[in-house]
Design goal:
The protein is of the alpha/beta class. Helix content is 44%, strand content 19%. Helix 2 packs across helix 9, helix 4 crosses helix 11 and helix 6 packs across helix 11.
């Protein structure tokens, strides 16, 4: 009896062992998969302009450094059109997972009030993560232009109302609105001549067919250094290191003429906070490096490295500031 009981007990234990072993794979197959840590695949930074401009250049600088820091590919995708609205809307409509980001610039603030109908809302559909840099606005003329500073230019314009013009890269562009801003501030009457892009304006400025051009120095660094254009004033709080002898608009009596191009990174609304914080940390550390600052300096710009809270406040302020300029100028785009 004892032997039989012992044998029966052994068979039951063996059967139980087989049943347990068979159940393990089944249990594993129904266990929820662990979420991968962000990022685990390619990140894309969307530039809402064609390749080659300052926005594109900054995006590629950020992408190269960010790729090394997160050990994943970071690629730049150009989606141009509608004054940056096509590429920006693409990002706003993307999955809010941190894998599709926007290289934002002044147009993202200006378009909120410039366009009668917007395909996305910068205030609610995007999360500004950080502003990485900026370059001051400048007023340019042909080297042979009679005025050498803003004061003389204003005197000439007031002596011939409507007899002088300024070029821009297009109606509603930051260059156009910078000119409209100065018209309002200074009380002068200038004729706006819109072109299809800043390069065409620059060509006619050098040829003497356009009198002045409100732009940012990052777009014209080479021309400033070579002397093919003349800088009459700098639209920032301090003088530019590129042209330290040129006084600011404020120094010449127009402190409200503050215009700069700026660049930042934004993500679609709804992006998880921990992803936003990781991107904020990594990108800020990138633009705080001496190497990154040197690259900005070479393109006539300065690194900023704002926090996410500072970036949000800055973009909100830019939206309101440009709204006032748009309304006063009467500029609208359908």
């Amino acid at each position: 009896m004892k032997i039989q009981q012992k044998g029966a007990f052994s068979w039951r234990r063996l059967a139980l062992a087989f049943a347990t072993a068979a159940a393990v794979p089944a249990a594993l197959s129904v266990a929820p998969a662990q979420a991968a840590e962000y990022p685990d695949r390619t990140i894309q930074i969307v530039v809402p302009y064609v390749a080659g401009g300052s926005v594109d250049a900054v995006a590629r600088m950020v992408a190269q450094e960010l790729s090394q820091r997160v050990s994943q590919p970071v690629v730049v995708v150009n989606k141009a059109g509608a004054g940056s609205n096509i590429g920006s809307k693409f990002v706003a409509d993307s999955e809010p997972d941190g894998y599709t980001l926007l290289l934002m610039s002044p147009a993202n603030a200006i378009n909120v009030s410039l366009y009668e109908s917007m395909p996305y809302d910068m205030r609610t559909d995007m999360i500004p993560i950080t502003v990485v840099g900026h370059a001051p606005g400048v007023l340019l003329s042909n080297p042979q232009f009679a005025a050498n500073d803003v004061k003389k230019f204003v005197e000439m314009a007031k002596a011939s109302p409507g007899g002088m013009n300024f070029g821009s890269g297009g109606s509603g562009s930051s260059e156009h609105l910078a000119g409209e801003m100065f018209k309002s501030i200074s009380g002068i009457d200038l004729v706006h001549v819109p072109y299809k892009g800043g390069a065409a304006v620059l060509s006619d400025l050098i040829a003497g067919r356009v009198e002045v051009f409100f732009t940012n120095q990052a777009n014209v660094v080479g021309h400033i250094k070579s002397g093919t254009v003349k800088v009459l004033g700098v639209a920032s709080d301090k003088r530019s290191t590129l042209v330290p002898d040129v006084p600011t608009f404020a120094e010449q009596g127009y402190p409200d003429q503050r215009v700069s191009v700026w660049w930042g990174i934004a993500a679609p609304a709804g992006t998880p906070d921990k992803v936003v914080k990781l991107l904020e940390k990594e990108i800020r550390e990138i633009c705080q490096s001496a190497e990154f600052a040197e690259k900005f300096q070479q393109m006539g710009a300065e690194s900023v490295c704002s926090t996410q809270a500072e970036a949000q406040a800055f973009v909100a302020d830019e939206i309101e500031r440009w709204k006032a300029v748009v309304q006063k100028s009467g500029a609208r785009v359908n």
